[in-house]
Amino acid sequence: MLNKTKGKLVFGWFAGTAAFVPVLSNANVVERGLSPPANTYQSYQNASINRDSGNNQPLNLLNDFYPSIEVTVSDHDNVRRRTDVDESDLLFTVSPALGYRTNFGRHQFYAAYQGNFTFHQDIDQEDAESNALNAKLGLDLSRRWDLELFGGLGRSFEERGVSGSREFTGFRNNGFDSGPEQVDYVSYGADLIFGRKIGIFQAVLGFDHNETSFDSDDLAIGSNFADSRDRESDSIHLDLNWQFSDKTSLFGRAQITDIDYDRADTFLDSTQTDYLVGLRWKPANSLSGTVGVGVSDKDFDDPARTDFDGGIYYGNLNYSINPFSVISLSASRTVEEPGGEIADFYESELLGIGWDHALSPLWAIGLYAKGIDDDFESGRQDKFFDWGAELSYLWKDWLTASIYYGEIERDSSRDEFDYEDQYIGLRLRSDLRSLFGSSNDSQKEPELFGKPKKTNRTKRTKRTNSN
């Protein structure tokens, strides 16, 4: 059976053989290609329709450090995704990460740093960096009760031309040359969990606080751009989970979120209520997935604003055609807060598919394609099509090399926002844990929790051994 870890190349046994097989197992198609906008990434992860409660993401790593790094170089036809002219350039990216997991008696602690540093050969004003630190403390209060405290802070940047992002026009000193949008965020919260250790029924009562701020507020000119989009939100949610078999559970969530913008007037402030029911199931080793459907009601404090009231959903399905080949499907419909003065909110629908296949013990291929349809309250509509392919080679036990190709296209109802970008690149991914002589090298690694993502280390010398 193959060990799969989202976003990394990992190793597992071919059923009935003794060969190790590399598999590109980025199970969530959403994370491939076009990135979510920085200002909505946290909401994408934590919104009631998308967020799996911490109750379903246990801190089950070994007590150890988890260092990793990814380095890429890619040649882009339109590196800044401009609509008026294509600008080709080489883009270099370095993404280091370090996670640490330990126990304090019965209590668990996990912290992770994630960095992302970009460099351009010619258009160096586009160079940017992102640094994020997140932590989670799991307190074992009693046989029935657990308390999880979590928080994060960081300074990130928003890629040009992503879903819901600001357009770099109407800014001082030439918006195209002002660099990418810088975004600061702070988040923290708590989940009080009942019944996780004692039976088939669990309940979670949680609180989340998020703050997001943008640097470009200081660069804006004109009344349409000068208003700040900085915001903060507070939410309370109740999760119920019924585990009626080893690999199948029903769940539900009710959440209310208060969104406040940091501005003198309050016409963008709103209250959003979400209800969700869903199913997590694994009827066979070859098939697993999560689906959720619900409704979202967004009411603005200003009665003159247009409210949102509609259905929302998400689903992720993974199917193993055979031990060497995995198909993944993703679909979702959410309501989002835009980064710029595009609209008061927008509905975003996504449909994506990915296929990962092991060609040999050392070679693997991965393909993906996804479409995004963004409908803004203002009437604007953006359609994205994004696809790519990757060929990977297990160079060392701790190092994977890949060559990849991708295309991104946006077709907007406003022609001045259309763009295309094609790129080809090289990628090196490394799980550095084995190089530092970890004390837990000989122990079997449990399934992944949180970020940074890791690989399962396996000694190359085991290839000739029997299973």
Q: Could you explain how this protein is built, in words?
A:
The structure is a single chain. With 467 residues, this protein is an all-beta fold. It has a domain at 33-306 and 393-402 and 423-460. The chain contains two helices and 20 strands. The strands form two sheets. It has an 18-stranded antiparallel barrel. Strands 1-2 form a two-stranded antiparallel sheet. A hairpin with a 2-residue loop joins strand 14 and strand 15 (325-336). The longest helix is centred in the N-terminal third of the chain and has 9 residues, at 38-46. The radius of gyration is 22 Å and the shape is globular. The termini are close together. Mean pLDDT is 80; it is low at 1-27, 41-51 and 446-467.
Top keywords for this entry?
globular, 3% helix, 20 strands, disordered N terminus, mainly beta, disordered C terminus, 467 residues, 18-stranded antiparallel beta barrel
Per-chain topology:
Blueprint: E1 9-13, E2 20-24, H1 38-46, E3 64-76, E4 89-104, E5 107-120, E6 128-140, E7 145-158, E8 181-194, E9 201-214, H2 223-226, E10 231-245, E11 248-261, E12 270-284, E13 287-300, E14 308-322, E15 325-336, E16 346-358, E17 363-376, E18 381-396, E19 399-412, E20 419-431
Antiparallel strand pairs: 1-2, 3-4, 3-20, 4-5, 5-6, 6-7, 7-8, 8-9, 9-10, 10-11, 11-12, 12-13, 13-14, 14-15, 15-16, 16-17, 17-18, 18-19, 19-20
